[in-house]
Sequence to fold (406 residues):
Amino acid sequence: MWAQETLESYRSKTDPVADAVVTKIIESGETTDVNHLFRKMVENTTLPLDEMPTYVREYFLETEKLPDFADPDLIRAGEDVFATYGPEISMMLLCKSLPASYACGYGAEVLYRTGRLSERDGSLQPFTRRLMETSQFVINVMCKGGTSPTGTGIRTTQKVRLMHAAIRYFLHEAGDWDTATLGKPINQEDMAGTLMDFAVYPIEGLEQIGIALTPDEKEAYYHVWRLIGTVMGVEPELIPDTYQGGSTLGHAILNHQKRESEAGRVLTKACIDFLEHITPGTAFDFYPQILVRYLLGDEVADIIGIKKFPDRFERLLQNMTIAIFGRVDKVMNRDGLIAKLAKAFNTKLLEGMINYFNHDKQINFYIPPSLQEDWFAPKQKEYWDDVWTSPAILNRRVALQKKNKR
Fold:
């Protein structure tokens, strides 16, 4: 168990390694180097290390090393989980992980203050850019070879770590950050909570929509994120060894921080607006809020301002299920209906994200070809083939058939 006093103590701790590098970059007075470095990080391109100052190059070379407990077999198994369930995991990041983080009133304040996730003049662009960066980060980490020494996941994590340090630097320099109440910006508790948002919450969400991974699959997926946590600069004692330990920590952090806040509600509204914007057609527009409330539970959903729908929407949910699946199991309860809809919804949602990011948005969202094949393979048609047929009797035959896909 994690005592609240223990978690609170980590709110005054940050990341000395990354903080020292960023401070040196910014205070060096070499404006060209500073702008070049951070522009490359935001653009999500490969860093030309030979163009970087020596101390920056040393940071990248030193922090790319994985800890001794890294297990290649577990890494491959974790990548296989993402290859199989990537669209569903992407949906869980949007509909469970991010909204849960907005319920953490202290941690949400950083996102709100930096203005990168909130709407401006009705535009979703700030939110979508940050969301793209987060989604790209997850894909880079979990794709094949993402955690190899110079893999896309390692490099992206190193850059995110420096961006976090830069945010801490500038919020401190602004002079109006309430450290006594909020703790230091992007502190160790917030970093550990974000790590569990990636490592644990999506897997819990899969179970809520009827996709139960095996214990080995859970541990493999968690193992990859456990490694990434070390590269990210999370202190080792805040990265539990097992999936169950990670789940316990993640919920302890949520319970420690959950409270209503303007930051959390503004961020949640931007997230829901985005989900409704990219949802195909208009019939599903109400569904993201129903799904988020289902995945988070009423208490957390109320904290971040997720709408509670009246009973008549239960009937609408049933009618939509009939339209999609042709029938409804009479014994299926409300949760079962939501779960079935979620399975039909996730791939369309991911396709909507890709189209939105890459269509005239000046944002390059990239999914490796291997994952595209796994997630967007042409749908197979179903056929019934005869397994056995009887002799003709009065011009009629009895046949046993098997359903196959071609």
Notes: The two ends are 51 Å apart (CA to CA). The CA atoms of residues 72 and 148 lie 10 Å apart.
